[in-house]
Amino acid sequence: MPGNKYESNQTLSTGRVVRLVNDRKIRKNSRTSQSNDVTTENYNNNNRGAQYIENDVNLTEDDNSKVATVGQCPEGDTATTNNYERCEKPDKKPARQRLLVVANRLPVPAVRKGEDVWHLEISAGGLVSALLSMKEFEARWIDRAGVNVPDTVGKNALTKSLAEKICIAVFLDEEIVHQYYNGYCNSILWPLFHYLGLPQENQLATTRSFQSQFAAYKKENEMFADVVIKHYEEGDVVWCHDYHLMYLPKCLKDFKKSMKVVWFLHTPFPSSEIHRKLPSRSELLCSVLAANLVGFHTYDYARHFVSACTRILGLEGTPEGVEDQGRLTRVAACPIGIDSDHFIRALELPQVQEHIRELKERFAGRKVMLGVDRLDMIKGIPQKILAFKKFLEENLDWRDKVVLLQIVVPTRTDVPEYKKLTIQVHEIVGRINGRFGTLTAVPIHHLVRLWPS
Q1: What is residue 27's predicted lDDT score, i.e. its pLDDT?
Q2: What are phi and psi of 444, to 5 degrees?
Q3: What is the mean pLDDT of the chain?
Q4: Is the pLDDT of residue 325 over 50?
């Protein structure tokens, strides 16, 4: 499975779509149109995921469905896809592709300020930071509300507030959230995808509760599907995100086979031998394969997914993806990035320049080591801090010349394992600062908080 097949398939995608457009016009006995090659350019990381969506999801198995490609005008003319230019009609704005972004958490966390008053702020999450930079789509966000709203007045008020942010909330029962999110997602899928084994004392409890957790996981995906279907319009692209929604592509395709569905994983995908440990492995793989396009951050993750489909399901892996009885699911490595220009522009703001000056004065004469991580088990924060301790022990002359500024963003604060991690990190930092700190300076500045981007 050559890597370049995952990295760039624009020529293949364009040629196939043009043939589909021509065949459709011939079947309708319409006038013959002249097909021209569509010019494409390579995009930087923060646009690559969007590029794959536009180029790849249109390879649909339903010939009777509406087939459209980037830069292809309805009248048969062509337009250059540079910067996603659209065909324009006189006195009309260019049409933008509608994109339904479906994820586990809202991009604007909600805080209740009254019976019918909600306060919304932009999330600091990586998914939000990456997707907010995409201006080429008319996006709608469909996500879990993230708060328990038992009363109708609160739900209506929150729905109205979110509509102003072009967001749609999925309201889930607290028991379902506990079973699927804290249980199946974070106790089974997350450790498995990161090559982490379950604690031995929890093995029996996990086995006993697995069926109920997986049932809640499927129920949650079905509830997401109901909301997506309610707001779906013909021609929309539905972009499903992460391991929380592996069952969603199947639910959507069961409703409408010609719906264009993309599923993207924001974590590693393990090797097939590790994936075999999951009792529901076959059902989840088949559900993901219902999508038109499956995306991963790296080629290795994509290769592991194809390998799992061939070894566990017995399907055929191709350079383009996975084929099941003539139906092809595209598998691609399309890393997502951030809006780097946003951070570059922020450096020029007066308040940022003033803060930089204050930090330079505060740490004058000392080397500053900066770490910004989510407070997650896989980030290795305790190991990083202990390594810094070892450095101070072995290099006495550096004790007053270096400082570690470690910023951690809290996450999954209601999960017991993450509460233990938080306590562990605080204890390690306290011991090191107590041993190597002075009245005027400490070697580690440990900040636990959300930082706006």
Answers
A1: 55
A2: -125, 125
A3: 78
A4: yes
Tokens of 246: 């592996």
The most confident of the ranges 41-50, 101-110, 227-236 is 227-236
Q: How many whole angstroms separate alpha carbon 395 and alpha carbon 213?
A: 50
Q: Compute how many other C-beta atoms are within 10 angstroms of the C-beta atom of residue 118.
A: 19
Domains 95-333 and 350-448 share a fold: yes
Integer distance in angstroms from the first to the last C-alpha of the chain? 38
pLDDT at position 79 is: 34
Global confidence as pTM: 0.71
Residue with structure tokens 């019976």? Answer: 115
CATH code of domain 350-448:
3.40.50.2000
Residue 270 has pLDDT above 60, yes or no: yes
pLDDT of residue 132: 66
pLDDT score for 253: 96
What is the residue type of 367? K
Would you list the domain boundaries of the chain? 95-333, 350-448
Architecture of domain 95-333: 3-Layer(aba) Sandwich (3.40)
Q: Could you give the C-alpha distances from 156 to 111, 151, 231, 389, in angstroms and in order?
A: 14, 9, 17, 52
HEC letters along 94-145:
CCCEEEEEEECCCCCCEEECCCCCEEECCCCCHHHHHHCCCCCEEEEEEEEC
